[in-house]
Each structure stands twice: as C-alpha cells, then as structure tokens.
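Regression test case RT-17, inverse folding.

Input:
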C-alpha cells in the first residue's frame, strides 16, 4: 500500500498543495494508488492520526509526506515515528527533502541529514513561537485586549444550526461534532443561552 499523510494547522490551501505534491511524486515513481490520511491539527495532541496509520503499515508499504516537519512536532517524536515505520519494514518518503528512508537504511549520510532536518524544523518552530509570543506581548502592552470578547462564543455563529439539530432530536455529542466543538463546550453554551 502507498499512503500519503497530510497534516496542516488550519490552512486548507496548504493541504491541497501537499496532496498535489504527493500525487505528483507517487505518479513520477509509478508507485501506484495513494490512500490519503488528512489531519488538521496545531497542538501536540496524543490522538493524532499518524499513529493509527503507522499501525496499519505492512512490509513493503510506503508512507509519503511532504516534509519531515509535517510528520512530528519534535525531534524526539520524529525519531520515535521513524523507528516505528522501520519496525513495520515500510519506506518513508519525504518529498521536499528528496529523502527516501528504507527500513534498513543506516548509512551515516542519511542519518546525519535527517538529524540536521529535525534540528532545523525544531528551531524554526521555536522561533515562530517566540515571535508570536513577543507580538502578543507587544499588543497587550499597547492596551489591546486579546482573545474573544467576554460573553461571545464561537458557537454564537452556529445558533440557528444548533437549534435545528435540537429540533430533530439529534444528540449533543453529534451536534458538537457537526459544529466543531466538544460536548461539554456545547452543554455549557446551551445553559448560558438558556436553550
């Protein structure tokens, strides 16, 4: 099997760019049909889709990613994921790095390149985080109120939709999934709005 793993924070355009790159790459190497696993996530959640995907890998399968930073959020996690893929005897393709890591690849140049890429990705994430924190601190120092105004919920935009779902007796768990929140957030919002 050939799998394409796509991960983005929120930008759908980037997801399409990754998908097109994976398809072009797979077609160029005549790898065959690609089954995609798409994930939109920005935090370090433990319930990511990459882990069930790795469990599905079999000997000879290939996992194609756009770049190593899409696969993991830290050097430690990336090392763990690479080890798990190797244990499954699958091949990892990182398109933007022109890198193919086979299950038995242990040559020093591949190891050094992956290590360098892991470090640069982690440094980049840390720099982005620092810039964001500094920008937010500067805005706060200027007197700007950060975050959503008190008393306003993202669910306010879905109020009519939620009422329709309630009217057809859809359960709260299903409604929460449809509007993109967890059940407790929905329950709290319903109490706040006396719905």
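Golden output:
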């Amino acid at each position: 099997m050939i799998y394409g793993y796509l991960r983005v924070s929120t930008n759908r355009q980037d997801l399409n760019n990754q998908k097109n790159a994976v398809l072009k790459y797979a077609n160029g190497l005549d790898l065959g049909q690609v089954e995609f696993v798409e994930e939109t996530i920005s935090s370090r959640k433990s319930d990511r889709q990459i882990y069930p995907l790795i469990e599905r890998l079999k000997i000879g399968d290939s996992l194609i990613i756009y770049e190593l930073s899409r696969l993991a959020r830290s050097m430690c996690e990336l090392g763990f994921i690479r080890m798990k893929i190797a244990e499954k005897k699958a091949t990892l393709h990182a398109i933007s790095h022109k890198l193919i890591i086979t299950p038995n690849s242990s040559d020093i140049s591949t190891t050094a390149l992956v290590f360098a890429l892991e470090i640069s990705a982690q440094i980049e994430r840390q720099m982005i985080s620092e810039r964001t924190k500094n920008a937010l601190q500067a805005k706060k120092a200027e007197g700007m109120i950060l975050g959503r105004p008190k008393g306003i919920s993202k669910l306010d935009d879905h109020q009519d939709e939620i009422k329709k779902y309630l009217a057809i007796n859809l359960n709260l768990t299903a409604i929460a999934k449809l509007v993109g929140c967890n059940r407790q957030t929905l329950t709290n919002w319903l109490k706040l709005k006396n719905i």
